[in-house]
Amino acid sequence: MQKFFAIGAAVVLVAVVGGTAGYVMTQGDSDDKFAQCRASTVAGGAGALGGPFTLVSETGATVTDKDVITEPSLLYFGYTYCPDICPFDVSRNAQAVDILDERGYSVQPVFISIDPERDTPEALTEFTDNMHPRMLGLTGSAEQIKAASKAYRTYYKKQEDGDPEYYLMDHSTFAYLVLPEEGFVEFFRREVEPEQMADRIQCFLDEM
């Protein structure tokens, strides 16, 4: 569920997941070369989100952000045992990537696990192969995932009640567009449709 509150000329985006709110301030920036492409920009500039990370690829190799973000990439933080939200969102991302493929633009979908206890490289491979042939799955230690999540200001928390094997995870649901030379440039909310996402991503790619 998402709520919006107007504060002066700025807008505060509140993503409420599992009773916990994560805040991203959005405001205009006349010096931003991508200004015409953004629905919003992050307070403090796009450089306030994203950054270096070290994780483990679905192949089992340790990789850094430099190894992963070699082309425009669409990042999503979730977990393979997610019963509904993650499959829906990741499928939407994959559809947007396919639309861009048809237009001649290559974007890599990336799935970053927030559940290292269960999301082994093998589990990620099965999940990503079902979602998109070019989707890359990333996992890692609890510390590595926490650092990557902190860089993108995402939220996640294991639900301690219920079945210890089939537990659920509360988590934020943004998708992040990251460019090799620019870093993070835009985020997408859940209600953005595949065609809308593809249109906005294409705008950024045309300005690269």
Bulk shape: globular
The CATH architecture: 3-Layer(aba) Sandwich
- The ordered string of helix (H) and strand (E) elements is EEEEEHEHEHEHEEEEH
Mean pLDDT: 85
Number of strands: 12
What fraction, in percent, of the residue positions are helical? 25-40%
Please give the radius of gyration in angstroms: 16 Å
Question: Any idea of the CATH topology?
Answer: Glutaredoxin
Major sheet: 7 strands, mixed
CATH superfamily: Glutaredoxin
Query: What's the number of structural domains?
Result: 1
Alpha plus pi helix count: 5
In whole angstroms, the N-to-C terminal distance is 33 Å
Strand content: 25-35%
Give the helix/strand class.
alpha+beta
Low confidence ranges: 1-29
Features:
single chain, 208 residues, alpha+beta, Glutaredoxin, 7-stranded mixed β-sheet, 3-stranded antiparallel β-sheet, 29% strand, disordered N terminus
Q: Could you explain the architecture of this structure?
A:
The protein is an alpha+beta fold and 208 residues long. The chain has a single domain (46-206), classed as Glutaredoxin (3-Layer(aba) Sandwich). It has helices spanning 65-68, 85-102, 121-131, 142-151, 194-206; strands at residues 2-7, 10-17, 20-26, 54-57, 62-64, 73-78, 108-113, 136-139, 156-158, 169-171, 175-179, 183-188. Helix 2 packs across helix 5 (194-206). The model is unreliable at 1-29 (pLDDT under 50). The strands form three sheets. The chain has a seven-stranded mixed β-sheet with strand order 5-4-8-7-6-11-12. Strands 1-2-3 form a three-stranded antiparallel β-sheet, with no helix packed on it. Strands 9-10 form a two-stranded antiparallel ribbon. The longest helix has 18 residues, at 85-102. The N and C termini lie far apart (33 Å).
